[in-house]
Amino acid sequence: MDESSLWEYNRRVQTDFGKKFAAMDLYNIFGTAHDVDELTDVVTALPGQMLVDLMGKKGEVSMTLPEKIKAGLVTAFRTRGHWGTLHEAYKVNRLASRIKEIYDDYPTNPDGFDAWQARRDELMDDLYEITGADPKY
């Protein structure tokens, strides 16, 4: 097997499993930056269907507009004192979508790797700035 074949295999892994793991890693980093009790308070205040939808394949809430409004009001009341954490989680969710796009653009040959890595690292810097977590790498 030659280097170009190995690179193609790596590209396929990165654009499939790699992007999923990279997005999950952002949430893991977010979680390490917070106290378990705080995260538990926030998660238990969220409507169950919303959590199922957000963790699903599309990452979108399937509720109707009236259901979203009601859930939003109830959630706002139940999560008072944790709104900063929710806003941070929202920002991390947006970064997770962006990192998937970056991994979709994984280079087809080694020549593009440095530019790709710089894009990925810039996003990770944004994550660490948002969460205050210590960089993993």
Description:
With 137 residues, the chain is an all-alpha fold. The chain has one domain. Helices cover 75% and strands 0% of the residues. It has six helices and no strands. The protein has helices at residues 3-32, 36-45, 48-55, 65-78, 83-104, 113-131. The chain starts with a helix and ends in a 6-residue tail after the last helix. The model has no long low-confidence stretch (mean pLDDT 85).
Largest sheet: none
Mean pLDDT equals 85
If you compute it from the alpha carbons, what radius of gyration comes out, rounded to the nearest whole angstrom?
18 Å
- Beta content: under 5%
Q: Count up the helices.
A: 6
Number of domains: 1
Q: Helix/strand/pairing class, anyone?
A: mainly alpha
Outline type: elongated
Distance between termini?
30 Å
Secondary structure: helix percent: over 70%
Q: Which spans have pLDDT < 50 for at least 5 consecutive residues?
A: none
Strand runs, count: 0
Order of helices and strands: HHHHHH
In a nutshell, what does this entry contain?
This protein has helices at 3-32, 36-45, 48-55, 65-78, 83-104, 113-131. With 137 residues, it is mainly alpha-helical.
Helices and strands in order, then pairings?
Layout: H1 3-32, H2 36-45, H3 48-55, H4 65-78, H5 83-104, H6 113-131
Name its key features.
137 residues; single chain; mainly alpha
